[in-house]
Amino acid sequence: MKRIDKYEVIEELGSGGMSRVYKCYDRELERNVAIKELRSELRENQNVSQRFLREAKIIAKLDHPNIVRVYEFLDLKKPKGRFFVMEYVDGISLSRLMENVKIIPLRVACYIALKVAEGLAYAHSEGIVHRDIKPSNVMISRKGDVKIMDFGISRSLDDSLTSPGVFIGTPAYASPEQLEGAIVDSRTDIFAFGAMFFEMLTGRVPFDSDRSGRRRWKFINPRRFNKDIPRLIVRLLKNSLRYDQSKRYKSIQEPINIVSTFISKNIKGNPKDLLVNLLEEYGFGERDKTLSLKVTYKEEVSNQIIWAIMKFIFVVGALVFIFAQYHYIKESEIFDGPGGLLRISVIPWGNVTIKNYFEGRVSDVNQEIPLPIGEHLIMVENPFCEPYEWRVKIKKDITYEKKIELKNCR
After folding, report:
1. Is 288 a catalytic residue?
2. Shared fold status for 3-87 and 92-288
3. Which residue is catalytic, options 26, 75, 90, 132?
């Protein structure tokens, strides 16, 4: 394909299950644009076509510096297809930046989070819930602009296109109510915003899954992974990631107020410059000549030293973790000496940990665990119940039976 209407196709930027995106050139206005095309095999699917047209209409009415703009919708006979023309962002996605940087520096992460939140606040004020906020749906230009894109599964508060009970979104960033196919609102975006912010600061998503794939909803303090995160931001993350929808922030404006206050008190100069510097450090930048360069040489050198130290700590930590895992496996494999047997069951179920000897999911069916002589701490966790701890003294050739009923399960 060489042309789409008046636009010259330069290259294909990417494709997904529903569409392809091209970088094109508008000769009339002398600018690059991005054009999204509905896949040919899906054009006859009425539901998909409706979603595609709705995305164009939704973004077209949103006019905000932190949201990718739509210029026009095209329903063409030659080349046959449905397209919408949108703003081209010369840069990279946040997900690609995170693949290279791993842990985004605090001040830069706060700036990105603030801009995403400001874009969401505007969308929410227009009655739109994005429903798929994640790093790959946030674009960062080489000049440091941050923009939300891909409103393909967004939902108007008065929209009936999505049926209750249907999950739409990305599981790693989806809220509990979204995973359950329940009704969503702006607090669903707040949860995803919190998950993405958590990942920027720690290099990992906030919630683990057990061996069966079920999500553990227990909030993990992000300072376990990054000691530089201030407690103010920890509280923001915790309140954004509440399991109960009603206990989260009522509006994205609350995180905006917290982050903007933190930036004004803790960041000298223009935080956008810090993002541009980071992009340039990893080969993605192209400094905007109109920016005021308020970041000093001393600060840049200091940042480079800090990054070197962080990378060293990360490598050492990874080696320690690998050694610990190896040691754990070896201890579990070689134990066959004198000891007793623990026969344990958990109602409804629990993740049972006995240091060096057992780690796994146990249900109401008895699990037999051989243990050496001595005292052992048994820890039982279930994300929906109160945790349980119990100590047992194992004696030679004795079988111990324990039935644990977890309390306050929701």
Report:
1. no
2. no
3. 132
